[in-house]
Amino acid sequence: MSVRDEEVHVAEVDVVEFKNAREFLEYLRPSADRWWSQRSAADYVFRGHSDVNYLLVPNAVRRSEEPIDLDRIAQHLQMITPGLDEVTAVHYAIAEVMRSLATVARSVGIDQVAEASELNDPFSSFELQAQLQHYGGNTLLLDWTRSPLVAAAFAAKDDGTTDICVWALNRDKFGELGMLAGIRKDGGSVELVLQDAPIVRNRYLIAQSGTFTYLRSHNSNEPDKIDWDPLERLHEHSAQCALVKIVLCRSEVAALRELLYRENISMAHLKPDLGNAVQVAVQRCLRIHS
Q1: pLDDT tens for residues 210-232?
Q2: Residue 286 to residue 290: CA distance in whole angstroms
Q3: Residues 123/167, Cβ–Cβ less than 8 Å
Q4: How far apart are the first and last CA of the chain?
Q5: Which of 49, 79, 247, 268 makes the best surface tag, with the fewest CB within 10 Å?
Q6: 258, 250, 252, 247: which is closest to 280 by C-alpha?
Q7: What is the pLDDT of residues 86-132, one digit of tens each?
Q8: Contacts of 150 (CB under 8 A, 6+ apart)
Q9: 125 close to 117: Cβ distance less than 8 angstroms
Q10: What is the C-alpha separation between 34 and 44, in angstroms, rounded?
Q11: 162-181 burial, b if ≥16 CB within 10 A, otherwise e?
């Protein structure tokens, strides 16, 4: 294990690297003192990335070579709405997809879907935006979990070539209780909001101990793409270190999956359906025969 401890006054991310799956898992233990404060409360939430280079940015505003479907909707809204800026167009597009989701789901007999709002604000129906996020849609939310082992399972779920990582976030240390004052171009502030969604209509949230973050601007009426910045970049404005990146080398991922399975943690446990059970079963057989 190697640790790079940054000076917290410049709010650089702490990076902890492992070459062994057991040591990685031991570091992530939910009971470890590092995740707890003197208030006898867990201070951190966690997120797993199957690619160590993946940024902490919502999928709705993650830039790629090819535009995603949401981009196409937002671009058309700009074409038909004079003066509509790009940031607001993305908000309108997400809200439109949310309304469409509610309509389509109910038309095929799926009643476990939240109510849609007629407002062009994705956060006017947070529960529905959370459902859209959890079932593969593009939103302004980032998924997190209160369990570091669940985050490890998401990091290890795919085969690939890069190392994997688990991010640990202490939201209260991110700026001043999540608030980064005066960092917008117009002098406004940006808040990192940590919010749970109702679990009654989303069984995955229960299995995954899931929660969400999103960015909210204050004292500003002007659209600003700073709301689309990765958390790593915004973290540079924080006075304290609030992010820890725990890295495991790719060669240990299969071993990590097996260790997590012994703890009753796998994609079959976290997204309980037959498709994920098949995927986990095949992965376990491949490990035995490789």
Answers
A1: 999 999 988 777 778 888 899 99
A2: 6
A3: no
A4: 26
A5: 79
A6: 258
A7: 999 999 999 999 999 999 999 999 888 888 989 899 999 999 999 99
A8: 46, 48, 208, 209, 265, 270
A9: yes
A10: 9
A11: ebbbbbbbbbbbbbeebbbe
